[in-house]
Design brief:
This protein has 110 residues and is α+β, with helices and mostly antiparallel strands. It is built from 5 helices and 4 strands. Strands 2-3-1-4 form a 4-stranded antiparallel beta sheet, with helices on one face. The radius of gyration is 16 Å and the shape is elongated. The relative contact order is 0.17. InterPro entries: CinA, CinA_KH. This is Competence/damage-inducible protein A. Pfam families: CinA_KH (PF18146).
Length: 110
């Protein structure tokens, strides 16, 4: 199983773009909404791990082509933001009006 993450498109748009992949029985594609992003899980059954990985890679290539810049890849949105900030030597200031500070905790955990 390989998990990818997408942002910036609604679930219905992603569903339309990937409808043919979601109706396949092997490999399979499942989509679920998770905190401002979508999780795409690709699974495959094959005689060997290498064959399953090849099937998954084919589906991933199609997803990358169709979703373009909206596909983050294996990283979650918080991981991508934290990595880009580090790579560019940037920081951000946050003011969250809730006690739990979810954005702060998500970024600082990376």
């Amino acid at each position: 199983v390989r998990t990818l993450h997408a942002v910036g498109l609604g679930e219905s748009v992603i569903g339309e773009l990937l409808a043919d992949l979601m109706t396949q029985t092997n490999p399979t594609l499942g989509i679920s909404a998770k905190r401002a992003q979508y999780e795409l899980r690709i699974g495959a059954r094959a005689n060997s791990r290498a064959d399953a990985e090849a099937m998954i890679a084919g589906v991933e290539a199609t997803i990358r082509e169709r979703l373009g810049a909206n596909l983050l890849g294996a990283e979650r949105l918080d991981q991508t933001v934290a990595r880009l900030l580090r790579e560019r030597g940037k920081t951000i200031a946050l003011h969250e009006g809730v006690a739990a500070a979810p954005l702060y905790h998500a970024l600082s955990a990376q």
